[in-house]
Amino acid sequence: MLAETDVVVVGGGLAGLAAARRLHRAGVPWRLLEAGGRLGGRVATDAVDGYLLDRGFQVLNTAYPRLGTLLDTDRLDLGHFTSGVLVRKGDDLIRLVNPLREPTGGPRTALAGIGSLLDRLRFAALATGSATLPTGRLLAAPETTTEEALRSAGLSDAIIEELLRPFLSGVLIDRELETSSHVLAMVLRSFARGRIGLPAEGMAALPRAIADPLPADLIELDTPVAEVLPGRVRTQAGDIRCRAVVVAVDPPAAATLLPALPAVRMHSYTTYYHSSQEAPLDEPILLVDGDRREIVANTVVISRAAPTYAPAGRHLVATSVVGPSAPPEPAVRAELARLYGRSTADWTHLTTVSIPDALPAAPPPQGRLRKPVALGEGLFVAGDHRDSPSIQGALASGWRTAGAVLVELRTG
């Protein structure tokens, strides 16, 4: 069977949905094909025995610029985390917060025992510059790795190893901090400007909200694409003839459909979910390891931010480990007892979620974080591997790619 439309979007993740939203707004005929049985790509949530378990610990930042174009975040009923971090250092738990969000915590943060006062002042200057300078100026700055950028800012080994490496390794999924300094600038900008939270119905509520305005009959689930050609997409159900194709799948799958694409290295991580009757912390704040054991990247009591993630009388703890080698759960549980400073013997291990292709690596050069999306002959590619490796990058890439398609359709 031969079908026809103007644009076929391959992939129903965040990038594909953002592209479809812009095409739909422009009144261009389109169809979206998703190989799986749901929308959202890497953003998914499983409901298990009263718990909401995201496919890997993820959060939503209200400062992502593209969010406001696509949805009203109030609809998500976000539960927010504290704008700061707890650091385990020996017998101490050191609390550092964003003084712009919590002014009363500023003096305590300035005097905290992580690095020196000069370290904290220099990092504050780095974060403030990222938050206040124009984006164009940040992306025009000389580009290095994240670690080189931190050391160039005059930060000591102590604050990098005890705070910034454990914190950023979980954000970037990159313990070596090889990620571009331009990506770091955007990360610091979003953390300084926005709040971090979780939707009451789990992270899967994000792609559902983006897809909500789209006609359901234009979205085909369980429809894997076998081949992409100029002007044609081939599926088991038949071919679809079109004027343009947007390939918005994960980088490994995109390279299969579009062999001309360069290979993209992917970072991996694992999230361990535990349930406890008593919350090990009273605050929804990220806890990282300042003792440099480099086993756990971060851990957090999710249900303190979003109580809907756990049934009444229980709490949900999410713990993330960076890298392809995930330690056994008992080893992680032992680390959690040390980090939280209390026994975890009565905790219940709910599940372990390993994501081998969690986030594209983004070493320099990344330039202005906008890689080409038009490949010629009506073929386009979208995804966070074409912008910044993040939810914002996926949404921005899909929107930008749809704009490039509209230009070609008008001029072609």
Would you kindly provide a written description of the structure presented here, covering whatever features stand out?
- With 412 residues, this protein is α/β, with parallel strands linked by helices.
- It has three domains: 2-43 and 204-265 and 370-411, FAD/NAD(P)-binding domain; 45-80 and 197-202 and 266-360, Protoporphyrinogen oxidase, mitochondrial, domain 2 (Polyamine Oxidase, Chain A, domain 2, Alpha-Beta Complex), CATH 3.90.660; 105-193, no CATH class.
- It has 13 helices and 22 strands.
- The protein has helices spanning 14-25, 67-70, 106-110, 117-132, 135-140, 146-152, 157-172, 181-193, 205-211, 251-257, 302-305, 329-340, 391-411; strands spanning 2-4, 7-10, 30-33, 45-48, 51-54, 60-61, 79-80, 84-89, 92-97, 196-198, 219-220, 225-229, 232-235, 238-241, 244-247, 266-276, 286-289, 298-301, 315-322, 348-360, 374-376, 379-381.
- The strands form six sheets. It has a six-stranded mixed β-sheet with strand order 11-3-2-15-22-21, covered by helices on one side. The chain has a four-stranded mixed β-sheet with strand order 1-14-13-12, with no helix packed on it. Strands 18-19-16-20 form a four-stranded antiparallel β-sheet.
- Helix 1 packs parallel to helix 13 (391-411), helix 4 (117-132) packs across helix 8 (181-193) and helix 6 (146-152) crosses helix 8.
Question: Which terms would index this structure?
Answer:
412 residues, alpha/beta, FAD/NAD(P)-binding domain, Polyamine Oxidase, Chain A, domain 2, 3 domains, six-stranded mixed sheet, four-stranded mixed sheet, 13 helices, 25% strand, globular
